[in-house]
Fold these 2 entries.
Entry 1:
Amino acid sequence: MALDYRKCAEEIVANIGGRENVAQAAHCATRLRLVIKDNGKINKAALENVDGVKGMFENNGQLQLIIGTGTVNKVYDEFLAVTGMSAATKDDVKNAAAAQQPIWKRILKSIGDVFVPILPAIVASGLLMGVVEALGKAIPTFGDTAWYAFLDMVSNTAFAFLPVIVAISAARVFGGNVYLAAVIGLMMVHTSLLNGWNVGNVQAINDFFGVTDGVIPTWNLFGNIHIGSYVLGSISRHGYQGHVIPVMLSIWLMCKIEKWLHKVVPEMIDLFVVPITTVFLTALATFIVIGPIFATLETYVLKGAQWLVQFPPGALIMGAVYPITVVMGLHHMYNVIEAGMLSSVGLNTWMPIASAANFAQFGACLAVGLKCRNAKLKTVAIPSSMSAALGITEPAIFGVNFRFMKPFICGMIGGAFGALFGAITKIGATAYGVTGIPGYLTINNYGLYTILLLISGGIAFVLTLIIWKEDVPEEVPAPMPKEETSSIQSNGADVTAKKVIVSSGGEIAKCTPGTVISYTEINDPSFASGAMGVGVGIEPEEGVVYAPMDGEIVSVADSKHAIGICDDNDQELLIHVGIDTVEMKGDGFTPFVAEGDKVTKGQKILEFDLAKIAAAGHPNTVVVLLTNSDDFEDIQLGEQ
Amino acid sequence: MKEFKYVITDEVGIHARPAGLLVQEAKKYTSTIMFVKGEKSAKATSLMKLMGMGIVKGDEVTIQVEGDDEEAAAAAIEAFMKANF
């Protein structure tokens, strides 16, 4: 009779002290892994007798119940249903002990997780774009060359299609289908939509849509149902080039929708129902809700910014909040302000403010890059800061400053004072489009501009150096330097002098120093059942395996934890180190042989790291099974 | 002879323990059950040979069943593959 999963789950819950005693639950291929708050409330005897539980043990603060392949996931689902808990991954279970982080920290972490993998793409583009734009301004004739046009295209690709890159990365972080995410990202920069950079550009709007009023036409999906000035289901036909946050929100939502659909849609029609529904619902939400919210915010930001920069204190505020608008992706319409200033008074006083804000992020990012000891962070922070110095701040903000927050705030402070200085001295630019170092090409006063950059970048740099401290990862103590050969005390000849399996097929020697137990005592149902042949388990004293007989290596698992050997008498022997250690994917295992190698008894064939197996939460029993034991007679097991 | 193809979706492929279960299943039938991947092949009753094929996620294997109970054996192995790999 099939196992009653529900009953099994209910009995487990009853015997571990109820729902409130469970911190986390996950499962692997064969076991239910639980983090229990108070182990004293566990009724071990009763648990072992629950129908469906084949065994249990505690390890690394986890209670592991052996349920079995193909069954454990069903019991787990019922377990979640009974307890009302949500699914956790194994990593979650491992992290459960770590204190629950506040939500804003988790949001920041998500943004960082999405952005860090794509940094190579945008750092490359950011630096190249800064150089190309600067050259275009410095040498006016260069702007007309084929090289300029080509380099311009190459360098701005990553930014023009940023939503696609962000979408793919976000799908990996939030756990959705990356191809569906790519579709959503592409949709947000579709050529049927006006380029997001041109939203404030009347001429571009008129050219693109063939209209004359400079207003972006809409698609009204549900006709003309007005709610105040808002038309229900109205989509403004512009793209989201250069946007980051709306894309992350859309993909986060997409992943939620997709996961939910996978749960409720019958498997038979899953393949065509889930993708189409996911894409359709996400697209609707993106263009009708998420997009307009950001477009509306953008308009307010624009109006607010225009008003603020009329007075020096306003410039101070603008210099501070500028990077926040970059984070929100609301900075794309500032060109409108600059163009307006140039046409009305002939001087772009916005540029020094933006420049101060950007250069301050450069200063903060550079400070992180110089101060940090983490090599990986350094390689991210230094090039990102260079890009920021050239006026492209996304890599520095998303990849570094915003992730750690303190550098970002230091940057805001530096930017505020730089912007205030700019507003008081009334310097300005004669064109728009560049900030930071390339800003020299358009500024009307080199000396004051230099001071502005020094103020903003300098304050941010010094503050960051003082305030920001690198989080030293706690969990990674420096690995003990190990001397490969000398750490093994035993020697192959001594260990293999003892026999563990003797049959009509021949003798198989002990392969690892340690206590020998019968296969039936191995803490794993499929090994203990004899289904894979009979043999022994060895509780290892040392992480080494010697060849237990002369023969040929017929298989070495990709995950390096299992080796198969055949001899001339056709004895097929499996040596499997640890239980469930396939999950370690080879980490901690060093085989010295490959498939096809001839080995002689006593030769060292594998070393393994007992500490790593313990850390991964697996039993370390070395399983030695004569897999074709059916072919032999008079089998005697045990050390002799 | 019955023949069908199967693409491995299990994360770790045909490794020791599930391969052991597969052998157990295959031994229930008198038919010869062969696993073929590219140039490599193995009888489903030989755990060592199966593991030696190094079948991992994404591999397509061809399974050939020949013998008196081939209908039942092929159906059982196919169901087993779907459930475990």
Note: The mean pLDDT of chain A is 83.
Entry 2:
Amino acid sequence: MEKRLLTGIHLWQGNEACAEGALAAGLTLFAGYPITPATEISERLSARLPAVGGTFVQGADELDSLTIVIGAVWGGARAMTATSGNGICLMQENIGYACITETPMVVVDCQRAGPATGAATKTMQGDFYTVRYGSNADYAIIALAPSSPQEMFDLTIEAFNLSEQYRVPTFVMADEAIAHMRERVVVPEHVEAFPRRKPTVPPDQFVPWRADPETMVPEMAHFGEGYRMPVPGLTHGEDGRPSASYQVHSAMVRRLVDKVESRADQIARYEALFLDDAEIVVIAYGSVARSAERAVRDLRDEGVKVGFLRLITLWPFPDALVRHAVGKARKVVVAEMSVGKLVREVERALAGAAVVKLFPKLGISLHTPREILSFVREVA
Amino acid sequence: MEAVQVKHPALKYYQPGSGGDPTLWCSGCGIGQVWHFTVRAMEELELDPDKVVWVGGSGCTGRMCTYWNHDLMHTLHGRPLGFATGIKLANPELTVICHMGDGETSAIGGNHLIQSARRNVDVVAICNNNFNYGMTGGQFSPTTPLGGITKTSPSGHREGSFDLCELVKAAGATYVARWTTTHPRQSINAIKKAIQNKGFSFVEIVSQCPTHYGRNNRLGDGPAMMKLQKEMSVRVGQAADMSREELQDKLVIGEFANTQRPEYGEILRSFWPEGEEGDNA
């Protein structure tokens, strides 16, 4: 059998690193529909996954793919899909279903320029709210944004672990530039996988949707294990049976949201530079963060008191982290490839504590370090 | 005289508290019969119910799985077959049974249906065909006959309808049968064969919806509709010698396919390294 974990140093494309990260995290089933710029993940896994005794499925579309992923998880698999643009839209109904059924799984979204088919081969960061609010009604998800092929590997593993820990769909929110970038990727000798939260009691004592009061997460029995597991898409109480009572519904929705949102501090992953004496803080994520970091370092060389916050966890949005990072700085620059989405969350989190300026580019062409540098200089 | 208490043999599989008392289906509806046919088939095959997963979607038929007291997945409208495929691929030792209404099977779920048949995935799809969307109040579906009156075809349906058995047969299903709720023994036998078939199996059971389709088309109550189903039924063999005109307003019943070809999961697993179990744990 081929090795799951290709320990060593590689020159990998972001999408290849993502596929390898999934394998390292214990992926046993992948289902996806071809779509630029995520297709390389499918292509690599179509060869690699069967070679380690796993299942690769090419779905008939994104709905087919995600239903297969969710079903497989309840059959005992660790499962993932990868998509982009139109595909992430088509998956939204199933994402809501995965949230109400607390199905641990990973969705990779290699963001591309839109709306609609847009510029399919080009980058953008327009799905910031799509992954968070795209399905109907109230729920919560986790989203991590890689800035390099190395992070495509690392954060795919992290996404699997968080999805198991919180029993929630977790997104790897890449963008086309990161998905197609080739860089050095270091694969460690060992990868820690968060185990599935299996029942700790025998079937006759098992209450399928009773959450642990501390974690707010219930234990999960797979099909065929004798636990008579009801997996309901309807509003349900602890017994998993349908209910339309206000009390049952509000308790369920509250928990689905709170188990993630109230843990925002623990889920927050980030990188910070020069924040101690910063008078202006640049905030960015994904590919844009690479240009932003270069600009910030160059500005520091010029003596400008600028700091840098790269958000890795986008959802749950790390309000406290952003407030703390900005600290006493008077001004904040948000650079993103959209008309302004991340900036809304930053403004909300800061609630007027600093002046927030948006530097948007609308995809296709990345912000250059020079452009960010000039923008910050003007603002400062 | 001592009263004799007889418990319905299907009750031991029935999950109370899943909406309605004892179910949310209307008086005279055929879905309860299909529920009973399914558990009878399983019992006659002596299946371990802990190894059987019922999968449903939305609508009256979609609720069938919620009354099954073992593993169940109550999914999204039209999508049970996708979820079922995932369950089966992850754990091939499970028997996976989907119950779907006609709209779910062939309108919103039409692609899942033909793809499942094409892949020949080892899943049992049972379509309760009552010619309309019941839970939303009786609108036309892809199986509503020409001229049928529904809430969205008040002056008679003008679109053509699917012959679901011919459709899935053409798409590659390896076991295909159609019966009606007036044919309980044949329906049970068909479900047994479907469960035993190693591949995609499709059993259509024509069923009565007296509340909507029956009322809108003045077809009478449940028993009257069942009688009509019997009168309209023509065996597959007989139908072969009948003209298109003669078959109009008839229900062709029987087996449409019972063949063998490689099963989807088996094909996928054939690429696994030899002598290795894989680590799908």
Note: The mean pLDDT of chain A is 98.
